Structure formats: structure tokens, C-alpha cells
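Is this the right way to post C-alpha cells for a design question? Let me know if I should format differently. Anyway, here goes:
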């Protein structure tokens, strides 16, 4: 019995030392992946992605924050058929990164464009039909004077007022 008592005491002492050692080193080590995840009440300061999709209840992308093929950032909106109907963005660096808004028709051709243009970044509205410019209204990029130009189906340009 004395041997059992002595063995139990020594085992308890060694187990205590081992437990203290493990506990001391566990506190110094980095937290586990489960412990490092933020709780649902914590907010992140930022989110970094190259593309962000807004998905509807059927799983279709309805809006997308991404870069265009030309390199400019944009917010793209899609209808329920997946057609690109609206774009808000910046043109590519090769086009001076002017801001723009584009309204697309059902065939995904630009039907209306509102953008800045030229060295003075003058505003211009372009109305299109079947991908062809039909009416351009804005401020002349050189003089900043207003103009309205129409283009016939044959491509003939008519300045209604001002000069484009």
C-alpha cells in the first residue's frame, strides 16, 4: 500500500509538471484557425477582391463589381436573362479614366452614354440606336460651348447648334 501511495504521489507530481508545461506553451502558440475566425458580431475593416458578384435567389449574377476587359473598374448590372443593361465605371487608363454611365438595350448595345470627354473633361451625352450614334449633346471639349449634333441613318452629321 505504501508503494501504491508513493507511486500515486510521484505520478501526480509528474502529471502536474507536464500539465503546467503544456499549458504554458499552448498560451504562447498562435491560436487555432477556429479561434482566429471573427465572431458574427465583429466587422472587418476591408475586403479585397478582384471581382464581387451580387447573386439573386436563383443563383444568377445580377450585379458585379469588377474590371472591364480594357482595365477600368465598373459596376455592371444584369437583367434576369443575364444581359448587361447598365454600367457605371471609369474608362481604361488609355482613355484618361473618364467616368461614364452606359445604358444598354436588350441586345446589349449601348443605347445611351453619359461621360466626360477631352482635356477639360467636358460632359457629353450620346444617344444611339442599333449601336450607331444618332444624337450627341454636350459641351465642346475645346471651347466648353454647348452643342447638339444629330446623325442621320446614312451617317450624315447635322449641327443643330454649336459645334461638335
Amino acid at each position: 500500500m505504501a508503494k501504491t501511495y508513493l507511486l500515486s504521489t510521484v505520478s501526480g507530481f509528474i502529471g502536474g509538471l507536464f500539465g503546467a508545461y503544456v499549458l504554458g506553451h499552448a498560451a504562447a502558440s498562435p491560436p487555432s484557425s477556429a479561434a482566429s475566425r471573427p465572431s458574427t458580431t465583429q466587422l472587418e475593416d476591408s475586403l479585397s477582391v478582384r471581382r464581387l458578384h451580387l447573386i439573386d435567389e436563383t443563383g444568377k449574377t445580377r450585379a458585379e463589381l469588377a474590371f472591364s476587359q480594357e482595365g477600368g473598374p465598373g459596376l455592371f448590372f444584369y437583367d434576369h436573362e443575364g444581359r448587361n443593361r447598365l454600367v457605371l465605371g471609369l474608362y481604361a487608363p488609355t482613355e484618361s479614366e473618364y467616368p461614364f454611365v452606359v445604358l444598354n438595350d436588350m441586345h446589349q448595345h449601348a443605347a445611351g452614354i453619359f461621360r466626360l470627354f477631352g482635356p477639360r473633361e467636358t460632359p457629353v451625352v450620346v444617344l444611339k440606336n442599333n449601336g450607331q450614334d444618332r444624337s450627341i449633346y454636350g459641351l465642346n471639349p475645346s471651347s466648353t460651348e454647348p452643342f447638339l449634333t444629330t446623325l442621320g441613318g446614312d451617317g450624315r452629321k447635322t449641327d443643330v447648334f454649336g459645334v461638335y
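Format looks fine. Someone answered above. Worth noting: The longest strand covers residues 110-117. The longest helix spans residues 2-28.
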